[in-house]
Amino acid sequence: MRKLLLLVLTLTLTLFSSCSLFTLTRGLDKMMNLHIGEVDLTAVEDGDHRGSFAFERWSNTVEVTVHNHAITAIRIIKDVKFAKAEVSSAVFEQVKTRQSIQIDAISGSTVTTKAYLKSIESALQPYIQED
């Protein structure tokens, strides 16, 4: 009886671990290959612009504030599933500093960085320059 219980417990943990790993890695390839466009800030009107990105656990919504053709603030409306404040802060600070969504990904958070950038891109979509 004890061996059977141990076997059931082992199988349950293995199944749970496999499902968790699948859930955490599902969509990584697609996210790694996302293209981030370039924004023409000279054409962006002043105001608050809301944008969203919807894909798996990286879905998020942001509000981008533009004043005098410069990004002055980025605020999270709905965050990614496994959010880290230090990641979003670093991404938003780089975007504001460079005045561009063409930034380096945060180490260890490349996919989350891209998800935030896609929401910012969505917010400023009418002003995206096509390659």
Which CATH architecture of the largest domain would you pick? Alpha-Beta Complex
Estimated share of beta-strand residues: 15-25%
Mean pLDDT: 86
Number of strands: 5
What structural class should be given to the helix and strand makeup? Answer: alpha+beta
**CATH first level of the largest domain:** Alpha Beta
Summarize the model shown:
This protein has helices spanning 2-25, 28-32, 85-98, 110-123; strands at 38-39, 47-53, 60-67, 70-78, 128-129.
Give a written overview of the molecule.
Helix content is 44%, strand content 21%. It is an alpha+beta fold and 131 residues long. It has two domains: 1-30; 34-129, Sufe protein. Chain: A. It has a three-stranded antiparallel sheet. Strands 1-5 form a two-stranded antiparallel ribbon. A hairpin with a 6-residue loop joins strand 2 and strand 3. It starts with a helix and ends with a strand. Residues 19-23 have low confidence and may be disordered.
